[in-house]
Amino acid sequence: MAEENILKLEEYLHQLGEEERGLFERIFKVFVTEGSLEPPPSMVPWIEARFGSINKVLRQKIVKIINLVTLESALFNSLRADRPMEARSSEEVENIIKAQEGDPFCRPLELTPADVFGRIRGHYSITASNVAKYDGFHGLVIFDQHNPLSFSLEEVKDYFNTALAWAWKAYQADPEARYFFLMWNCLWKSGASIIHGHLQMTLTRGMHYAKVEALRRVALEYKERFGSNYFDDLYRVHKALGIGWEEKGTRIFVYLTPIKEKETILMAPELSDSLQEATYQVLRAFIDRMGVKSFNLALYMPPLSPTPESWEGFPCLIRIVDRGDPSNRTSDFGAMELYAASVISDDPFQVAKILKESK
């Protein structure tokens, strides 16, 4: 598949074996359409300056992919998907990060509250209680390092392990709170209100958060209907297309129906060293190779203790997305993403190529 491109997805599907193609069609549905327009002559110079060729604009190929299991959907436009991926300038963002040194997270013992069960001190981080909580237990892992884009493998491992230690402390304080969720919002485009490096975690009661619970339910329904594990089959489809691979027991793939740009999913049976190392490698490739400055990361995992509902076959799962240039005022989320389908600029095949080259 030379010059891989999401716009050629239908061609790639014809190259798959019967079993792989059947698996793809079980999970995904692809629709291809063309958008056309007729610009006035006065607009042609502007179009050519912005897009390189008037022909690119006159006829635009659009690929819509729907995950039939989860009903996630993404729209890829040829004008967007054909763009070269270039690292963005970091000088402005770095200046802002440096100017914010001395914020409250630089002095967590003095300027952040502790949880009712105290703090967890990691090798490169410390926990705090979130002042304005999402849930009964809502904590922070505050990095010793101020710059949220500067982190080593050992630091990332420490952040995850400190967060998990916090979860077990919270669970001991309330054994009914057993559903753990971790999120890492980096810089303001991602929703972070403080620049200093940190991630957040919650522990909730009764039921997991709705999107995690929805995924659990559709995976069980998939198992009942097809007799196979949804997550295994999802990975197999991406691997067959060349945008999924495995490293030391961790499965990695660039998702065909991403919620936003460059969405990469990593899966393993548990929050292992391998999963943490692979997550670090993806994040560093995002930042160092693709110029990502702002990202969201979420960790899904089964509950900390047995529950009435079944979590059989549900892996430890990490999802990462690029949230766009922090210097750009335009939001990457609009009514389409909130209420219809994600509109995606970055090509999954190109993202996968860079990630694999970065191993």
Short account of what is shown:
With about 350 residues, the protein is of the alpha+beta class. The protein has 13 helices and 13 strands. It has helices at about 10-15, 20-25, 45-50, 55-60, 80, 90-100, 110, 155-175, 210-225, 230-240, 275-290, 335-340, 350-355, and strands spanning about 30-35, 60-65, 75, 125-130, 135-145, 175-185, 200-205, 245, 250-255, 265-270, 295-300, 315-320, 340-345.
Give descriptors for this structure.
359 residues, alpha+beta, HIT family, subunit A, 2 domains, four-stranded mixed sheet
Which secondary structure elements does this structure contain, and how are they paired or packed?
Blueprint (H helix, E strand, L loop, with lengths): L8 H7 L2 H10 E9 L7 H8 L2 H5 E9 L5 E5 H4 L9 H9 L8 H4 L13 E5 L7 E7 L9 H21 L3 E10 L11 E8 L4 H17 L3 H11 L3 E4 L2 E5 L9 E5 L4 H18 L4 E6 L15 E7 L12 H5 L2 E3 L3 H10 L2
Parallel strand pairs: 3-13
Antiparallel strand pairs: 1-2, 2-3, 4-5, 5-7, 6-7, 6-11, 8-9, 9-10, 10-12, 11-12
Helix pairs in contact: 2-10, 8-11
